[in-house]
Prior knowledge:
Blueprint: E1 2-5, E2 19-26, E3 29-36, E4 43-46, E5 58-61, H1 80-106, E6 126-132, E7 134-150, E8 153-156, E9 165-168, E10 175-176, E11 181-185, H2 188-213, H3 217-257, H4 262-298, H5 302-328, E12 330-332, E13 337-342, E14 357-361, E15 365-372, E16 384-387, E17 397-408, E18 414-420, E19 432-448, E20 453-454, E21 460-465, E22 471-481, E23 486-491, E24 498-502, E25 513-515
Parallel strand pairs: 6-25
Antiparallel strand pairs: 1-5, 2-3, 3-4, 6-24, 7-15, 7-19, 8-14, 9-11, 10-13, 11-12, 13-14, 15-18, 16-17, 16-19, 17-18, 19-23, 20-21, 21-22, 22-23
Amino acid sequence: MVMRDRKNNNSFLPQTDKxxxxxxxxxxxxxxxxxxxxxxDAKSVPLNSINYxxxxxxxxxxxxxxxPTQKVSEIQPKSAKNLLVxxxxxxLLLALGINYLFSSIYSKESTVAASENxxxxxxxxxxxxxxxxxxxxxxxxxxxxxxxxxYELIPVMTPATGLQIxxxxxxxxxxxxxxxxLAKLNNSTLQAELVQAxxxxxxxxxxxxxxxxxxxxxxxxxxxxxxxxxxxxxSQAESELDLVKKRVKRNRGLKQEGAISLDRLDEIxxxxxxxxxxxxxxxARLEEAKQQxxxxxxxxRPEIISQAKAEVSQAKGRVQYIQARIQETIVTAPVxxxxxxxxxxxxxxxxxSETLFSIxxxxxxxxxxxxxxxxxxxxxPEQKVRILNGNFQVPSIMGTVREVAPIIDxxxxxxxxxxxxxxxxxxxxxxxxxxEIATSQIQGKTVPTKALLPQADGTAIAFVVQENNTVKAKSxxxxxxxxxxxxxxxxxxxxxxxxxxxxxxxxxxxDLVKINK
Length: 517
């Protein structure tokens, strides 16, 4: 009896044109007997699910009438001949029950699988790595969010108003040093005023030098000549007055005699008055000449020199004022730092109230966190802060609490915590960041994050390695996620429990494992 594949017309066991096999029962087992037509190399093959095919793909053929019946070599304790005879006798029976036989083999309730003599293969252990649950101090943290600000934002303005911006030498994002030129204004008008003021200084300084040097000999000689001339004029005026007095006396006598008219006498009297006035003027000129001569001989008075010095100082002050205004037309950085904003534009006219630039002093930034009033009391200066996210390359950065604001906002009921940030090129003012502030430490249990399988309800599954190297699935309640890729265990595991680290995703409860050390 030969079984063949209906689809491919091939036998389900290796077969050639000179080979066939029979199925028989020996010592409680079904055995396929394979042999060639010359009864050589006969062998028995125990039947199992490996060398069975689906019953729909199998058919049963009766042995060929020319099938040889010679003896075959011994297979089991029975001889090959007995097996062959028994197989022929059972051929018809097996032909009728072959479909039932193969259906039973592939059924979950197969008689062969349930047989007491069948051995169930043991599952191969899965290789995993293991880690112990550790107990260590755990920092309790408070989460908050806030905005990045400049630690000190310095405005840059110019008091030079009404001047046009001529050059701009810095832009946003540039780092500038203290005193570095940021922009230049048009100062041509001020330069012209400076030239005039400097000329005035030179003039008054020359006058002061002249006064300090005193009068020259020529000037004193001229003064003496003026005194002599004034004395001569005085003598002449006195002589004229004496002559007029005599004429007046004589004409008064003539008037009494009626020799002259009254008008003539009045003329003589007027001449006397004029001569007296000339005499007074001559005396005044003589005194003035004497005074000038005395001044030249005594030198310049101290008050005149002081007045000249004041004029020099005033002229120099004017020069300094103009120079200061010219200096204001060169806009420089008051501190070193990063240019945060640039409002200056070429050709614009400056105003004293306009901010041309703003500079972040030394590039220092701070994070201003908003914390509820019920939690802010747990935060103190110098506490460490871990920045959880942001648009920078590193996954997190550390900051330090610098100040806790003493005032709580009445509307939001939140307080401000200022955190000093380290220098980080990707941090920009205005960024919104989340952070964790370490507030206290407790003793707790931790495991690596990779050892847990997260569940939809917020818990996780860990596989605990038992003494017999099987695993037991346990539900774990997790707490703080720690910076070193570990997590706090609130419940479900005990200290020193051995749990699967790598390979947990391929396990189920009760699996046998092999620990890879």
